[in-house]
Design goal:
By secondary structure, the protein is α/β, with parallel strands linked by helices. Helices cover about 45% and strands about 15% of the residues.
Length: about 290
């Protein structure tokens, strides 16, 4: 899908001081990204702290983003977990998915299935889904890596599986997928630091965390890479690199929420077990923003 190339962002969920959902802050974040050049929005990903949200709160977040977006950018909804039957029921819900262009579904976490288990999980999802599926491989969170062989097996067998957010952090694995992927299969980086490198090898873009704070710079960088203007794109990469280190220094989304607070987008609050960035990290993030052009 051409509409899902470029820079997507995994949106945070802003909270107020009482830890209720900050609807105004979320609306402001969506608008900031649309005007900043973001290509598509990812709703209810890990960065959204969705593990700490009730089902009712998740629906509030979804309604808020859909309303704020007003159909301007493509929307991708995160639906994943380690209960395959539950996921297949959710991806078949046409009414809930009416406003979304695709589903982002993370490889099963905690139970650490074999490669055959991962394959069967996505097979069940692909056969039930009413929207295209983007797989999500993030071994640092799931505890297991979906190999290039498994990714390609799924990509070749199911038309409903249209791409992967590849966040293993291994360029060799990304290259193996890029080398043998079927025509039209999207390869999106899930790692901000190597996103441009993946694009330079033929990748289609990124689902970014830092991009929601620096949309103009990061979307411009990825867009430049997709057009082949790598000299300018890598110049931006080197300027942005320190911020990527900073926002992940104490975990995600602690760092990005600190940055968005300094930018005046929303307040800096997280739900336990996550906590705010330390005062030392806060100072470094503020310093970066003060110097960033």
């Amino acid at each position: 899908m051409e509409s899902l190339r470029g820079m997507g962002v995994a949106l945070i969920t802003p909270f107020k001081g009482d830890l209720s959902i900050d609807v105004a802050g979320l609306t402001k974040l969506v608008e900031y990204n649309i005007t900043g050049g973001t290509d598509f929005l990812v709703v209810m990903g890990t960065t959204a702290e969705n593990a700490t949200l009730s089902q009712e709160e998740k629906e509030v977040v979804i309604r808020t983003i859909v309303s704020a977006n007003q159909g301007r950018l493509p929307l991708v909804l995160g639906i994943g977990g380690n209960n395959t039957a539950s996921i297949t029921a959710q991806v078949a819900n046409e009414a809930r998915l009416a406003h979304f262009d695709a589903i982002l579904s993370v490889s099963p976490y905690y139970n650490r299935p074999s490669q055959e288990g991962i394959y069967q999980h996505y097979k069940a999802i692909a056969e039930a889904a009413v929207k295209p599926i983007i797989m999500y491989n993030v071994p640092s969170r799931t505890g297991s890596n979906m190999t290039a062989e498994t990714t390609l097996r799924l990509a070749n067998e199911f038309d409903t599986i249209i791409g992967i957010k590849e966040a293993a952090g291994f360029m060799d694995q990304a290259l193996r997928i890029l080398k043998d992927r079927p025509e039209g299969f999207l390869v999106l980086s899930g790692d901000d630091m190597i996103a441009l490198s993946m694009v330079s090898a033929g990748g289609d873009g990124v689902i970014s965390v830092i991009g929601q704070a620096l949309p103009s710079a990061f979307a411009g960088m990825i867009g430049g890479g997709l057009k082949g203007d790598f000299a300018k794109a890598y110049d931006t990469q080197f300027k942005v690199m320190p911020s990527i280190d900073l926002i992940f220094e104490e975990g995600n989304p602690s760092g990005i929420k600190s940055m968005l607070a300094y930018l005046g987008i929303c307040e800096n609050h997280l739900r336990l077990p996550l906590v705010k960035a330390s005062s030392e990290l806060d100072k470094k993030i503020k310093g970066f923003l003060s110097d960033f052009e």
